[in-house]
Amino acid sequence: MSMLFIKTASMSWDQFWHTIFSTRTLAAYRLSFETALWAALINSIFGFLIAWVLVRYQFFGKKLVDAAIDLPFALPTAVIGISLADLYSPHGFLGASLSRFGIPTAYTPTGIVIALIFIGLPFVVRTVEPVLQDLDKEAEEAATCLGATKFQTFWKVIFPGVFPSVVTGFSMAFARGVGEYGSVIFIAGNMPFKTEVASLLIVTKLEQFDYAGATAIALAMLAMSFVLLLSISTFQWYSRKKIGAA
């Protein structure tokens, strides 16, 4: 990481500011963070639901579903990207069906979100799952005996205990999504100002032998990611402190 600073230091201030704040670079920042945010939010909701089902219910094929959750960890990201691009292309199995309803997916920001959802879901599920397993069921039974409805038991007893882990899973999925490259480039279309993410722009500059420009953008991404993750971690710490005090 120190090499980012060392290599970027070879640029003048004017060159540095022009590189990290050019119109093309700003568009890439915005797309990277927006798609990663949407994917992390969706994963937080459905990752929690999947973890809940895996912990609380027994059903046929449960082990198969549980194993499939870790599939994005096992597959090379390029394989994921090629598979999703084929599925969601205008002539693909899923893309053709969605196109009939006027919903383009591949080569749009929507396709990027789909790829980030796929690679980020395991982070939420595997973070929330052990917390759900360790929850004290006696507290739920006590709430039920005191007349609480199922929704009240969930909202007042279960959710506060699992919320910090949901935030952790969100932050991990978000961080992974911001810097994702392999699974995105095939389904994104990589059009500047439209579907070009920051990680692709960095690789483009490397291919043009503009190493200082690549490290400058990487340094800017690092700084923005650090600020966001620090904010999330601070919020998570405050939530745990509040729960502990309660």
> What does the radius of gyration come to?
21 Å
**Unreliable runs, pLDDT <50, ≥5 residues?**
none
What is the tally of beta strands? 0
Percent helix: over 70%
Structural class: mainly alpha
Summarize the SSE layout with pairings.
Elements lengths: L1 H7 L4 H8 L2 H34 L5 H8 L1 H4 L2 H12 L4 H8 L8 H26 L2 H9 L4 H29 L3 H7 L9 H10 L3 H35 L1
Summarize the structure.
With 246 residues, the protein is mainly alpha-helical. The chain has 13 helices and no strands.
Characterize the structure shown.
Helices cover about 80% and strands about 0% of the residues. With about 250 residues, it is mainly α. The radius of gyration is 21 Å and the shape is globular. The mean pLDDT is about 90. It has helices spanning about 1-10, 15-20, 25-55, 60-70, 70-75, 75-90, 95-100, 110-135, 135-145, 150-180, 180-190, 200-205, 210-245. Helix 3 (about 25-55) runs parallel beside helix 8 (about 110-135), helix 3 runs antiparallel to helix 10 (about 150-180) and helix 8 (about 110-135) crosses helix 10. It is built from 13 helices and no strands. The protein has a single domain (about 1-245), classed as MetI-like (MetI-like fold).
Descriptive labels:
246 residues; mainly alpha; MetI-like fold; 13 helices
